[in-house]
Amino acid sequence: MKTRVLVAERDDKTVEIISSHLKKHGNIPVVAHDGEEAFRLFRSRAIDLIILSLNLPKIDGMTLSTRKIRWESNGPIIILITKEEKEKGQGIKGLKLGADDYITKPVKPKELMARVDAVLRRGKKVIDPQEIVYGHLVMNFERHEVLLNGKLIYLTPMEFEILKTMMQQPGRVFSRDQLLRVVRKNRLEYSESKRTIDVHINSLRNKIEQDGSKTRFVHTVYGSGYKFEMEESEAAEP
């Protein structure tokens, strides 16, 4: 299967260099010239790799990669930076905020393809674990089971997918919109409203944070959404 690469760059010459070499190596470039177009294409196409410039119009590359795309995908991102941006530490900043690599413009074709191949190889080596364990809470993806203190907990398909999404990225805050997209992506329900997510979260809490337990897993981040994080509370006085 060919790799589909989103190329977001305002300079036509740079776009042509990148696109032609991606095609030469059997990849499919999908081109955007501003941040809004790039984000729209990212959400509407099956994208395997993103190469984007920091100085995009409408939505800048740093915001696009770290505040929008990273909220919805862990796919590889390579950022394009100028020499001036590199001297200001923008490349290192991008890596710290979630980019996988950066390339300094003007783009050198051999370096470009070497870095593209490298991030794609790293991505292929990532194997999702079949089981996640947090204290006495265990989720097994293959068996589609959740165990609490060794006992099987029944979750609806929707509850399972919501919990799985949060357990795979502990500490990350998910908005209701993002969790709703998880539900719809898995074709569990198309008529759900954002507020219905609250109902499923409350049901999850009742099942995995049972009375008498000192452990909390699902936390509300007011004004933002929910996150998964194991937290031991103080034991109540008898």
Characteristics:
alpha/beta, Rossmann fold, 2 domains, 5-stranded parallel beta sheet, 4-stranded antiparallel beta sheet
CATH class of the largest domain: Alpha Beta
Physical arrangement of strands within the biggest beta sheet: 2-1-3-4-5
**Pairing-aware structural class of the strands and helices?**
alpha/beta
* Helical content (DSSP H or I, runs of 4+): 40-55%
Give the total of domains.
Answer: 2
Order of helices and strands: EHEHEHEHHEHEEEEHHHEE
> How many H/I helices?
9
Task: Please provide a written account of the structure.
- It is built from nine helices and eleven strands.
- The chain has 238 residues and is of the alpha/beta class.
- The chain folds into two domains: 4-125, 3-Layer(aba) Sandwich (Rossmann fold), CATH 3.40.50.2300; 131-232, Orthogonal Bundle (Arc Repressor Mutant, subunit A), CATH 1.10.10.
- A five-stranded parallel sheet has the order 2-1-3-4-5, sandwiched between helices. A four-stranded antiparallel sheet has the order 6-7-8-9, covered by helices on one side. It has a two-stranded antiparallel ribbon with strand order 10-11.
- Helix 3 (61-72) links the parallel strand 3 and strand 4 (77-81).
- Helix 8 (176-185) crosses helix 9.
